[in-house]
Amino acid sequence: MIGDRIKRKRQAFGLSLQDLADRLEGLGIKLSRAALSNYENNKATPNAKTLWGIAKILEASMDYFVEERNVEIVLQGFRKKASATQTKVDQMKAFVLDELEKRIEVDSVLGEVEPKDLLVQITLEDPAGAEGVARKIRKAWELGDQPIASVSSLLESKGWYVLEVPDDPEFDGVAGYVESNRRPFAVSRKGIPVDRTRINLLHEAGHAFVACADEKENEKAAFRFATALLFPKERVFEEIGRKRDSITLDELLYAKKKYGLSMQAIAFRLKDLEVISESYFTLFFRYFNQMGFRKEEPGSKELMFQEEPMAFGGKVHRAFAEGLITESDAARLMPGFRVSAEAHGRIASSEIKRILSLPAEERERILAASAEAVKDAYDDPEVNHSGLVDDVIEYS
Q1: pLDDT (0 to 100) of residue 339
Q2: What is the pTM of this model?
Q3: Rounded to an integer, what distance in angstroms lies between the CA atom of residue 349 and that of residue 324?
Q4: CATH number, domain 1-68, options 3.40.50.1820, 1.50.10.10, 3.60.21.10, 1.10.260.40
Q5: Residue 259 has pLDDT above 90, yes or no
Q6: What is the 3 state secondary structure string of 59-93?
Q7: CA R_g for the chain
Q8: What are the start-end ranges of the E strands in the chain?
């Protein structure tokens, strides 16, 4: 309903009811905090001018507020600092809901089939059991025991929604699934080192796969799952050894560059696998603290892993190219969407359907003329700079 969507958008912007009322007054629309609360609780409906003002402030179209599409999600993990306020938590949840709604809309437009394989969460006696679950997932996903090039791409290829939220030091990640189709999602935040993004995403994804009988152990289990998936036990033993009395930072840095997880996460991994002792692990972390590595580690900026979610952007471009959405739709779904000059000359699906509906003789005449135009273009040295036609003939 209209009120629900006003509330969600307001929360996504981190505004209080009074903040919104003050900004509306700046547009010449005087409303009390109580009146806005009535709108959000669906006890009253804003008139067109008020809705226009709300849409302007919250950077949304007026259509947004009258759409009936409301996404319901089930959260399985939400990592934040203890200092995060309820307003901040509501803001992050609202942002995630809006982003998921966009992805579901594009999937619907493209006619994408919902995932058939529903994830099964396994209950563990203790966090160490996540090790075996990670090994099974690696086998099921045919990853072998090699480094994962891109966690984002891997999850997206398995049907996950992967999101980035604005950088906020009070927030780490969110995980859950869309209630209507059980589609899982994992969320990390922008502006952090790529090794942290990778562990964040797999930590959050881990909540979909593992949970402990004692809920207090769930975070440890998810972290164990993430590190095990990124750096398999067999590779740890082969590259670092089964038992070490000491280890150098250079060894940790080498493993970090190869497997894409932080030196701190690798140290945890070595402790969990009993490669190093608890006491040695404690000494290592004391050293990390002294060197300031808890805030910024060496080598993070040089990591070559690509962790920007790409699936959604590709789907928006595809939907636009196929004439299923307009350019304004694309810009609404993906702010910053731009169309190249060449793209404006694309043949829309409606035009293709029109051509196919023509009589055979007329259709063949149009296609023959198009083919001749293409041939002339390739024969023109001003167009065919690379000699592409000759190369195609030579190697065909």
Answers
A1: 72
A2: 0.79
A3: 8
A4: 1.10.260.40
A5: yes
A6: CCCHHHHHCCCCCCEEEEEEEECCCCCHHHHHHHH
A7: 26
A8: 73-80, 122-124, 161-165, 171-178, 184-189, 210-212
